[in-house]
Each structure stands twice: as C-alpha cells, then as structure tokens.
Amino acid sequence: LWWALRSGRLAAGAAVTIPADLLEKHCTLWCSLSSSPSSSSSSSSSPSSPSSSSSSSSSAFAADVGAATCGYGSNCSGGLAGLTRTGHLLSQRFFGPLLCDGPNFRSRLEDFLVEERGGHRRPLKVFIYKLPRRFNADLLNRLQLGGWLLNAECDYGLTLCTEDHWSGLFSVYRQWASEVVILQKFLSAPSGVITNNPNEADLFVVPYLGKADCAESGNAGQDPCWGKCKCATAIKHLFGELRHYNWQTRGRHLFLATGDTKDLPVEIQAQPLVLTLGASYCGGNLLVPSSSLDPVLQPGPGTFEARAKEGKAPSRHIFIYWFGSDDKKWRERVIQQLLLYRQQPDAKVVVVHTLTGNYEDRDIWQTDANSPRIILEEMYRSTFCPVIQGDAPYQKRLFDAMLTGCLPVVIAFPSHVEGEVSWWLPGGPPVDRMVPYPNDIDYSEFVVQVPEEVVQAGRFVEFLLELPEEEELRRRRVAMDKAKAFVRFDAKGSEPDAFSMLMKSMWSFLDRGGARSAAKSKASTDLPQEVFDCGVPPGNGQMYGHFACCPVDLRTRAAAPA
Fold this sequence. Notes:
Strand content: 5-15%
Largest sheet: 6 strands, mixed
C-alpha cells in the first residue's frame, strides 16, 4: 500500500479491501525486506575466506534469512522429504516468503548423471552461489506486489497456477518465469549434486533472476523498459559477488535469463553459458521453453493428457485457432485470410481473438478472449494453431499448442543461413537456433510449414484444407505427443522433461569433445583452457541480441590452413 500511494497508483483516501491472509503476507514480506541483513550485504564468501567480514554471520546465512522471511505460518526449520538441507535453506533464501516449504518443482537424479569417457556415469557437481536476496527474492517479492495491485491470482513461476482473468502486464511476465522454475529444479537436486567446494564443481549456478530484474525494473513491474534491459536494478552489482568467476571458469558459470535474447542486459548476453528463450547464435546460449505453469498441461490425473488417455478428450471442432496481436505484417496477412475464409457459407470453424491495448495506460488486454484458462480450453479443442511472426523469434504459443495437442502452423521463410528455413521472418534465424533442444526434438515431424509464397498468394487456409485429413494429421499428432514432455517442466519430477533435456545439452557444452571428463580424472589445474570468440552477431540485435560469445575449438583452429 505504501508503494501504491507513493507511486500514484492508488489515490489517498480510496477504499481498499484486502483479505486478512494477504495483508499478513504483505506485512511479513516488507518487514523481511527491510530487516534482512542479506538485502544489502554480500554472503557469497565462504566462512573461511579472507574477504569474509563475519564468518559467523556468513555461515548462518540460510537459517537467519529463513527465520526472517518465512515466519508467517510455514515451518521452515528443517528439510522436507526428498530435499537436501542445503537445497531447502537456499530455496528459503532465494524465494522467501513467497515460497517457504522448499521448491515446488522437483528434479530427478537421472537429470544430473553425466557420462565420461569409458562409459563411467557420475553426478554432475553443481556449486550454487549464495547471492544476497537483491538478486532473486527481492525482485520476486516486488514483482509479486505489482501483480497483486493488478489483482493477480497466480505467482511468478513459483507454483502451478492458471489465471482465471487477465492481470495486465503481470500476465505477460509469467511466460518468462522459466528461470524461477529451473532454479527450483537445481535446488531440489538429490544428495551428491550440490557442492560447497568450488574446486570440484563442474558447473557454477548464478541464482540471479535476469529476466525478473528486467521485468521488475525498480518499480514492481509497472513501468518496464525493453531493449538491453536498461532499467534493471540488480545487474550492476552482480559480478562483484561472483568470487570464482574468471577467464578460466566463465564458460562454466550458468546465468539464468529466460527472456528474448535481445531484451536482456548486455552483460548477460555476453556470457558464454546462459539460458534464454532465444534466438541463439552459437554455443552456450542454451534455449529453454517458456514456463507453461498451468496444471492441466502437466502429466498426471486430471490433466489434458490424462483426459486423452482415458478417451475423454473433447472433439477438435475448431479448425484454426488464433489468439494474439495483429500488429505485425505477416500476422496481419494471415488473420485477414482467416477472416475472409470464415465468411464462406461452408467454412469450418475458425476462431480469431485479436489482442490490442493502450500501453501507456497499461490497459494491454483488450480482447474478447475471456481468460488464459479459456484460451487453453479452446486450443485443446482446435486442430491447427498458427505460430506467426512476433517481436522476437521466440513465441510461447508454440509450446502451448504442443501441450494442448493443437498442431502448430508456421510460415517457412528462407533463413539468413543459406539452405536453411526460418519460422520468424525472411532472413531470420534458422529453425535450430529458434527452438529448444533441436538435436532431441524433430519439430518438422509435427509442425506444419506453409511456404512464404503460399501466404503471399492468399492461400494459407487452402494449404491446410488440402492436407490429408486422417493419416497425415494422425502421424503429426503422434510425433508431437512424443515430443511434448520435453517442452514442459514436470513439477513432480516424475519423468524426463525440459530440465532433463537442458542438463543433457549443458553437459554437451561443458564436455566439448570429452575434454572436461578427461581432465577431471587428473588434478583440477589440468582443466582445458577455454577460449571464446566474442563479438556482435548479425541481425541488428533483433535476432540474436547485441553480443555473443562462441566457443573456439583450438584443435580445429590449429589445424586450419594459414
């Protein structure tokens, strides 16, 4: 309320009704933010470090923060089943008081097993920095307060939840919460994975929530700034906290920033190992799917998947379904063709929900689509869902379509890479730089690709009508059903999921050519030198961002002719 009054979002003297449990949470949250010593002091140093100002306060960081932030009714004194004590205490530090009982998204031991030369398998050793709360919890808490001002009923990636109404910009932000889910998955790692010894670490996880910093922008997400994330408040303090970050280890420091690459802080874009939504120019810019936080999209009882297995899925009576803005050239062309076809007397059912709004007034959800919940239900009853040019190569609707069983439809453009296809724009990034895990998922088996010239000729709908209705659609849907588990984060950790694929891709990057697994059998000082070629990628910053660092294979470079 103090923030709302000070920022002018709430007029003095206005009548406000706040449920008692929400008021209690607000009060505890703000008291913890103002009183927690970790909000302003560094605790990434180990107790024995010469740079540590207080070994006692440093060693007790987790218990102190847990007591300060998780006292509004949750039991935070000990670990929970399936969690290590370290993972539990770190989760209180990074997410309290919004999330106090440990991570809601669990991982599996198999996610962390890596194979070295000779076939030996072992758990990946992960060092997680104990960053101050300014880099994670404070960002989430302020962002959540902004969401509550917009009547948000869901949180920012901490739990499974489907919105029953639009909550302004907060509804937009939730698609970028994969970094929160992934950090929870790391914290729920089984015993033997998380290490406090940096010398044995294969991977250094930096629990800075990069996209949350961009969305929060120092004003609870009410006035975000795009393009290089110039309004981020925490990034300027980050690298002073990373005591083990240097030229030798930077390629093993994982940064979490699950937004469009172009809209991330340049300091993050320039890192050799970073998680984003794309596009990826090279190497360690690992793409992950958007966070699909809706319970019906999970595996298990009561979900869309369970309904289909039980033969209770509704008929797909909607031929083509579109929800989204119409302010892009190729979107406008496709929507016009959909509306024109819909006027035919014998037309199949076509649903078009356009999205407009006044950004200056923050009234951005002017649409006849009632809610996110209704959109998923309608997609679940649709055959084709177009995924057409957005602001960036990444689009959440691709993953929503896959998880609801609606076949994605794209326009196939010539890429800037000769002989490759782009699903974004003419001259755009090739498909394998736009989507997560292209080595494990063959998207061409189920994504319907409409050639650019077909759309230019006004035959988008006719192209879909001419597809063999039974055999072709069944084949595509079977392929999509096999792939969809790999584009969602399974909250229970009951099966291989998007996090499993991420860890597989990450080990491929860390162990390029088997060099790291070979060196691990020797002294740590024998680890191979990592060299990266850093510079400005093509595309004027819109495709791959404004900076990229690509790994250099010294053996290939040495063998190349002068």
